[in-house]
Amino acid sequence: xxxxxxxxxxxxxxxxxxxxxxxxxxxxxxxxxxxxxxxxxxxxxxxxxxxxxxxxxxxxxxxxxxxxxxxxxxxxxxxxxxxxxxxxxxxxxxxxxxxxxxxxxxxxxxxxxxxxxxxxxxxxxxxxxxxxxxxxxxxxxxxxxxxxxxxxxxxxxxxxxxxxxxxxxxxxxxxxxxxxxxxxxxxxxxxxxxxxxxxxxxxxxxxxxxxxxxxxxxxxxxxxxxxxxxxxxxxxxxxxxxxxxxxxxxxxxxxxxxxxxxxxxxxxxxxxxxxxxxxxxxxxxxx
Amino acid sequence: xxxxxxxxxxxxxxxxxxxxxxxxxxxxxxxxxxxxxxxxxxxxxxxxxxxxxxxxxxxxxxxxxxxxxxxxxxxxxxxxxxxxxxxxxxxxxxxxxxxxxxxxxxxxxxxxxxxxxxxxxxxxxxxxxxxxxxxxxxxxxxxxxxxxxxxxxxxxxxxxxxxxxxxxxxxxxxxxxxxxxxxxxxxxxxxxxxxxxxxxxxxxxxxxxxxxxxxxxxxxxxxxxxxxxxxxxxxxxxxxxxxxxxxxxxxxxxxxxxxxxxxxxxxxxxxxxxxxxxxxxxxxxxxxxxx
Lengths: 287, 291
Prior knowledge:
The complex is a heterodimer of chains A (287) and B (291). Chain A is mostly helical and 287 residues long. Chain A is 71% helix and 0% strand. The interface between A and B is large, with 99 and 102 residues.
């Protein structure tokens, strides 16, 4: 039965776990598939099939409120991504290439804090902070709140990339008396680019997906798309909700795929190739 | 290696932003939890512990306190659901992680991608999908009625099981990935050595794989427990407001009830619970390494 490898037995051969894993993958994707199928249903009654149609997508795309919410979401996500990636690159460099100092562990813990503190706590404490200071500066509130929780997401792939590519090239440049800035511009940054792109997309998706923090922090007139969709969902199951949900689902999935492509371990000359896909939440850094 | 001054300067923006906009807000929340609610929905002096007393007791007209279990019930229910989610994701997630570990590198990447992608899809939408499936006119009831298994739709939505299902569905990837990360570093020669000594599959799991995968299990447990404890969307959407959990309770104090000190105190309690879970996990995985 089993292939005659390694002396006749193969502990990796586990068909029953394979069956179970297939079931679990189905469990993860079947509900999403149901949503996508329903969103193409022409019938206003969601569950009764009335033929294939794109009319709900057309209706959603033409909805002015949804357009406004989408624009808000995109502005916030783009700004938060830009800020968080810049901050994350600096922090990742300091942690991967910097000197050891007292308080390094505390600094790492602080940066990873947004990953472990429950979202509801982040949302309420941020709300309290902004309203106590009287900071009602519209979109900027949202951008700041999003930047905070995007930093660790942006940093994980960047850190993984820095570790994978090693410091040999930078050290060689230092031996040739390159200035620190030039070494960063000409060597570190280009080699780091896949990590930065992956981190940037992760930050962008995290911001785009966020509901609870935007829900609590955003003032009137600054509704993000998930907050608006939540309002629609409270009104009940409608074809419009299915359509807009499918659009968001497809965007997140495509972006996640991009991350996998960019963070695929590729060998960097003179450095050990990355062993682990950087996207698998490296929990060692969190805990 | 960078100079110490550059190292600190590079860390400054991250530490500064998260410190100012996350650590300081949490300290302010801690202070607010010891203040008095004012009528406009803010906080005022004097300092007191009323918000914490409120969790357990209700003040009578004559000023005496009587025990009211309402909030305790909500907290116990939240902890119970978070623990149940952790146990269920572990039971479902461990075999998945093991199976992925057993595959060739190419298949590993594929399976990891499949497990991780739902993690990047909006929780709001993933939760909404279950409404489509479970409601009275939902797919599950429709199919069962079509097959003549039932006459009337089963009440699948708006109960505790629906919340639990939603939580397990949301957090399953959080458990699989850290366990897989630990298994991947496992020295496979140990497994082969155990087989050479005629180990049974159960003993191999119990004596070799489980002890060695403990750090990943611990990390996964914290990654599931912490967000599950403060979950808002799943109880709100799948519990239908009947099964109040601590996440919704906190949210209500800042929207409908406008009782900031009480909301702050609840947020502090949740944070403390997460910190305790982190410490316990840290201690357990340390002792695991020593053993």
